[in-house]
Amino acid sequence: MNKYLILMILGLSIQGYTAFGQLTIETCQEKAKNNYPQIKQYGLIEQTEAYNLSNANKGYLPQVAINAKATYQSDVTELNGTKVVNNDQYQAYAELNQTVWDGGVIRSQKGNIKASGEMEKQSLEVELYTIKDRVNQLFFGILAVNELITQNDLLQKELQTNYDKVQAYIQNGVANQSDADIIKVEQLKTNQRKADLLANQKSYKEMLSAMIGDAIGMEDSLVKPDYITNHNNETLNNRPELNLFEAQSDFYTSQESIIKSGNRPKVGLFAQGAYGNPGLNMFEKGFTPYYIVGARLTWNLGGFYTQKNNLSKISINKQSVDVQRETFLYNTNLKISQQANELEKIKEQIRNDDEIIELRTRIKETAEVKVYNGTLTVTDLIREINAENTAIAEKVLHEIDLLLALYNLKNTTNN
């Protein structure tokens, strides 16, 4: 009886609700996710990605540079003993460069930005996914307490019925006041247990309220899931971690593209307008304007020195991601197998519970007859009543256990 009362002391922070004061577990999970502070990170990731993509696209725009210089040369060209130009020279110019082909650098950068953004989003999905388990524990903990409160009420009614019978026995001289007192003590204990259960119910509802960001009153009810409807034999692994591994691998692939494109030749157009002394005509004295237009090919071969090592490092990172994926699948498959076995074990316990309850009820009814005939004490009857109540309570908890185990399996596989 106490395992569910010890079960939860977890989580806080999350939002939501359904009609007529009823909440399903799926609603709680969704509201908890939407209420989690980290959910705001989605918008920040998308904004950052948009800004970075915008910056990368600006690489296609014409690039303008303005330069000026003044120099003094120790020697200059002379013609027939006359200096062609002065030793002091001045130049101011603006240069316009337009990329025609950059070897795929900008395209690779954009691919890397998108891959990085996707990796951040999937990492956030993994973090948000852990909320499901916390909600499940609280949700089914509340259901368990609710069932125990219902069973406690039934026990109280049965004790009252037997108390009334004993009072009648006392009037007929078949029992004495101490027999009634024994039942009264048990009634008081049952009232104490109910007070504890109500306190636990209130505590768990407050924790779940904090997670979903919506107040759950004592009058509000949680909808108990139907096992048959929610049972799914599919064990296909749809966990967000697998998407994260894929995003990480894509990110490293985009880095490979950046390295390769950076080592390709670049082609561009340029135009330069200048004003200087001398101008292009060295024989013309004074400041003159001029311009130059043309095409430019650049190819920095220095990147090839380190390309092999850089690609090898990225390959190692991708292999590391593959190892992490394999390890995750291995551990998850083990967990799926354990949880599937747990489901079968609980179903077998429930089948035995039905027979145990039937036997306990029969024993209790026989004890009631014996008390009436004076061949059994009221203390013995109380023991049998408690034994039957315990058997019923264990079945109730096993049924909640079954649902929790099912949702644990669903959570492990994300189905």
Order of helices and strands: HEHHEEEEHHEHHEEHH
- What proportion of the residues is helical, as a percent range? 55-70%
CATH top-level class: Mainly Alpha
Strand content: 5-15%
The end-to-end distance, rounded to whole angstroms, is: 30 Å
Helical run tally: 9
List low-confidence stretches. Answer: 1-20
- In what order do the strands lie side by side in the largest sheet? 2-5-7-8
Remind me, CATH topology?
A: Outer membrane efflux proteins (OEP)
Oligomeric grouping of the chains: single chain
Gross morphology: rod-shaped
Helices and strands: which structural class? alpha+beta
Report the biggest beta sheet as strand number plus sense, adding barrel if it closes.
4 strands, antiparallel
Radius of gyration: 40 Å
Q: Mean of residue pLDDT?
A: 88
CATH superfamily: Outer membrane efflux proteins (OEP)
Written account of the structure:
The protein contains nine helices and eight strands. With 415 residues, the protein is an alpha+beta fold. The longest helix is centred in the C-terminal third of the chain and has 70 residues, at 304-373. It has helices at 3-7, 25-35, 41-57, 105-171, 177-212, 227-230, 240-262, 304-373, 378-413; strands spanning 22-23, 63-72, 78-79, 82-83, 88-101, 221-222, 266-277, 288-298. Residues 1-20 have low confidence and may be disordered. The two termini are 30 Å apart. The protein has a single domain, classed as Outer membrane efflux proteins (OEP) (Up-down Bundle), CATH 1.20.1600. 65% of the residues lie in helices and 13% in strands. The strands form three sheets. It has a four-stranded antiparallel β-sheet, with no helix packed on it.
